[in-house]
Amino acid sequence: MRALRILLILAVVLGGVFVAVDRAALYFAESEAEGRIAFGDAEAGSTDVSIKGFPFLTQVAASEFDRVDVTVKDIRANAAGREIRISEIQAELSRVTLGAGYTSATASRASGTAVIPYAALTEAADDGVTVAYGGDGKVKVTGSVEIPLLGRTLTRSVLSTVTLVDGDTVRVRADEVPGEGIPGLEGLVRKKTDFERGIGGLPEGLELQKIEVAPGGLEISVTGSDVRLAG
């Protein structure tokens, strides 16, 4: 009985040591991964990585993680020659495979949400145009146009619908533009307020799927397969 108690105590102690070592290795790996994850050609600010599953060390030995959650903030991509800022991307990655020497990582599947604030959409629009939340799933676009016939500049705001085109382009188009009896006014206003911006620089394999207009900005569902994260 005494020997059995000793074996049980040793088992508990060794189990505790294993857990401690496993958690320490996990913390170190997450910290290392945060500095290595790359979002294509886009520049990113802070990155937070959370590797799920236990034990961690057996997943390392297999060079594959069942699930990894990633949050990347302040991503600056390119949109039609203009920089566009994605304030945050939260993604759940499945079956993340590590390359030789742990220098690369590829997710079999990825899903999440990207947020583009209205200030960033304003920066990506034409000069002199501002974009804000318009309520009821619409955005309010305001721009100034010159009216040659009147010899003056008019500022107009329109409610616009935002759609996703071809999986990588955000399209903003006014629902209605009152002509006010001024020849060519609608065309001039639309030339300012209607625009499209393709979002580039995201990792290969990651696509934009669905867009929603929310008070805090555009919320875009992202998904993909064989998404290369680093290396």
UniProtKB/TrEMBL annotation:
**Annotated protein name in UniProt:** DUF2993 domain-containing protein
Q: Which organism is it from?
A: [Kitasatospora] papulosa
Which Pfam families does the record associate with it?
LmeA
